[in-house]
Write a sequence for this structure.
């Protein structure tokens, strides 16, 4: 059995146009936890997960999944990007999108089999979208699109998932459904790393928190990291502390 961390990031530095946006980040994440990545706008939250996934070049440092580089664990890692980064006018159906999650194991040039279609339908059922499987993705609401992307991630059958702000722009019912799904993934032993912006729900949703503002401010169990002192270090003057209670600790000033 592999006892290595599910995700290990060492000394990661990332730059845009020679300007560093992440400095010397060191993080180790165990299996079977829901992890929130928290920080102000421009803190490098999305950059962190894109660099970990090899979608952005890294100036320095390395990333390991279960003790191995991404190239050896690619099938173990799933990704749900921000909805805004997707061309929703592309003419494919809901089921087509979810089937894309099976291509890593199936291979791009092999025909989709009945087993993959059955898996896609089960993943759509898990997120409450099976009745929409033949609908064009351009005809879905924001919350429905997010559910489809979650179904695609489920079809990847990964052990680690990175999700970039999956709760943005969804209704309360969809947010509740997403959290139910994330907890199911945790129960299966998966690690789920979520870029998140809502400080009110963060201590309720996540087992572990990464506080990030270009550098890693703190990382650890939510009870020890989600504190007024560490949040103030992360957000600085953009944060007003309302209470010492963890579930209502702060409001971001715009």
């Amino acid at each position: 059995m592999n006892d290595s961390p599910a995700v290990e990031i060492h000394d990661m530095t990332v730059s845009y146009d020679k300007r560093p946006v992440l400095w010397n980040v060191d993080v180790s994440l165990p299996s079977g936890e829901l992890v929130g990545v928290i920080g102000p706008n421009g803190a490098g939250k999305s950059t962190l997960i894109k660099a970990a996934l090899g979608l952005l070049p890294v100036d320095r440092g390395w990333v390991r999944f279960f003790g191995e580089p991404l190239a050896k664990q690619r099938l173990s890692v799933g990704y749900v990007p921000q909805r805004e980064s997707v061309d929703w006018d592309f003419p494919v159906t809901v089921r087509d999108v979810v089937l894309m999650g099976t291509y890593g194991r199936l291979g791009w040039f092999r025909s989709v089999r009945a087993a993959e279609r059955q898996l896609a339908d089960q993943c759509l059922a898990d997120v409450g979208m099976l009745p929409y499987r033949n609908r064009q993705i351009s005809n879905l609401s924001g919350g429905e699109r997010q559910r489809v992307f979650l179904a695609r991630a489920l079809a990847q059958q990964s052990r680690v998932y990175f999700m970039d702000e999956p709760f943005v722009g969804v209704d309360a019912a969809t947010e509740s459904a997403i959290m139910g799904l994330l907890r199911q993934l945790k129960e299966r032993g998966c690690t789920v790393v979520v870029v998140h912006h809502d400080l009110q729900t963060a201590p309720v949703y996540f087992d572990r928190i990464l506080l990030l503002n270009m550098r890693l401010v703190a990382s650890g169990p939510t009870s020890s990291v989600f504190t007024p002192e560490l949040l103030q270090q992360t957000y600085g003057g953009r944060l007003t502390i309302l209470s010492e209670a963890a579930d209502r600790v702060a409001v971001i000033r715009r």
